[in-house]
Amino acid sequence: MAEFERLIRSQLSPEEGAEVQRVSQLAQQLLSHLESSMELITALHIHGAQSRAIQDTVGRLEDQLGFGSEVVLAPQDGLVTGGSARHC
């Protein structure tokens, strides 16, 4: 069974507390998704196979959680970046 552990400071501002709650909700949703998909992920995890099938399986939840797919810009665009959370 998968699990996550939340590590936070003992004193949080109200804004930080709200953010911690939101992150905990996101983590719990992701954990539930991974647990419900574990059998499929295990079946797809084959030595030498492309990782795209697993990425697609895990990624089904990304839009619901507010995450976008990785975007890679060329250096001539002035910025090179990866995926990011739209909620933060």
What would your notes on this structure say?
With 88 residues, the protein is an all-alpha fold. It has one domain (14-77). Helices cover 49% and strands 0% of the residues. The protein has helices at residues 14-44, 52-59, 62-65. Helix 1 crosses helix 2 (52-59). It is flat. The mean pLDDT is 80.
Question: Would you spell out the secondary-structure blueprint of this structure?
Answer:
Layout: H1 14-44, H2 52-59, H3 62-65
Strand composition percent: under 5%
**Which parts are unreliable, with pLDDT below 50 for 5 consecutive residues or more?**
none
Mean pLDDT: 80
Put simply, the count of helices is 3
Largest sheet, if any? none
What general form does the structure show? Answer: flat
Number of folding domains? 1
Give a summary of the structure in a few sentences:
The protein has helices at 14-44, 52-59, 62-65. It is mostly helical and 88 residues long. α1 (14-44) packs across α2 (52-59).
Descriptive labels:
88 residues; mainly alpha; 3 helices; 49% helix
